[in-house]
């Protein structure tokens, strides 16, 4: 019994000390991040407790909800192996060109009704045409006027002039995920490069928009690939990091991938929080499938999540999400968008 008590005390103090150092401004090292990913499952609760202290210091007990609208589905020439909308996918999905104003405005109303502060407009394809950019800009202006939502657009690879038009129209944030490491990227996509993604983030930032960029876990990558992506994001001034856990879709090249368990997913979220203490960490696609009964525990590390459905897959109902947040004793933030630091001290 003495040995067991000593081990419990040791693991608890190890993660508590790491959390304290992060809170005092020490940057998590890649070796410490690897230690988190490789930590024994029996230390998970101690790790989550330490991570939660960091989350609470920067975000209190608030949860920020995102609502996603698939504004253009399928019809994509890119060969991303995880995506049901790609040219190499046989998944039975809807395929349609960019949604009209009425549909996008209805999505904005649904976002507001779902208690989301951020409305994500997502369009498949390598990148938008100038006509599509103009259309999105016109609708965003109306959404801002009618609903006052924070707007995040994910439209693929952007040219500088397109990014500037979106910024001028009121788009607050551009999402363009790194997805994985530079080393592994060509294993999941060959029709554009990792550098292409970095370039789009650069032009969006130069246009004055916030950056949202994250990763997909469970695509056959090594732990080092996850760590490389996490630490690459440190140098990009991202304001939000969505963490997707692969939901293998029949008809895609990664359809047979099934290598995640809920405990590992939680460790990944802990790494992200410790590495990016004041950045919004969002539980994104695949949470229902991969976190399963442990979904709620993810919010001890993350401070935001998508509500309702994703691009071509269904999520749990908004009512279930609301209940989960309430059961944790947390509060959904509704209304105007504030930065991470504005939320501090709410615990």
UniProtKB/TrEMBL annotation:
Domain of life, per lineage: Bacteria
Cofactor note: Binds 1 [2Fe-2S] cluster. The cluster is coordinated with 3 cysteines and 1 arginine. Binds 1 [4Fe-4S] cluster. The cluster is coordinated with 3 cysteines and an exchangeable S-adenosyl-L-methionine.
UniProt-listed CDD domains: Radical_SAM
Alphabetical keyword list: 2Fe-2S, 4Fe-4S, Biotin biosynthesis, Iron, Iron-sulfur, Metal-binding, S-adenosyl-L-methionine, Transferase
SMART domains documented for this protein: BATS, Elp3
Pathway info: Cofactor biosynthesis; biotin biosynthesis; biotin from 7,8-diaminononanoate: step 2/2
Known EC number: 2.8.1.6
A Gene Ontology BP annotation from the UniProt entry: biotin biosynthetic process
Subunit note: Homodimer.
Protein family membership: Belongs to the radical SAM superfamily. Biotin synthase family.
Name by which UniProt lists this protein: Biotin synthase
Origin species: Planctomicrobium piriforme
